[in-house]
Prior knowledge:
By secondary structure, this protein is mostly helical. The protein contains nine helices and two strands; from the N terminus they run H-H-H-H-H-E-E-H-H-H-H.
Amino acid sequence: MNNDTTKMPYFKRLFKHLETINTHRFEVMKNCFKCGIYEQGLTHDLSKYSPTEFNVSVRYFQGTRSPYMYEKEHFGFSYGWLHHKGRNRHHWEYWYDMLDGKWVPIEMPLPFLIEMVCDRVAACKVYQKEKYTDSSALEYYLSRNDRFYMHENTAKALEAILRDIAERDEDAVFADLKKQMEEYRRTQHQITKQH
């Protein structure tokens, strides 16, 4: 596809972007349901329909990767991404805070870590199409430097889950994650009862 996406007719970009985010959300929803995080599956990435994210994404739609990447490369940052990461807890960038005068990563709670896995697997399927394999999400993760900026425990857990998917396949791993979520909920319920 031509790198200058602004040459593509606006309505073609609009409908293609809408198709991409709808397909992505449906794939994430299926993954989340398999993992037992139903509400997150239903509400995943709803901010992508907001004017701040949607308009920018239509303008820089490419179909092979996130429009935010195009915007970052050309302008040094992305308004859409800044809006998105601040409203979606399944992104590790959401989990940063100022402690003792320094910005530090916060460990992601299990439900959002699992949603991040579901999101990454779905994104690889949507953008890679027939080239997708069970190793795709792991390969993408290892090709980037995200792991050096997220909380150490989050990075280790994410990589372990993605490696497990590459070795055993997503359905087997998602079934295990569903059991982990059930245990997590039981533990959270016990903590709540004690307070």
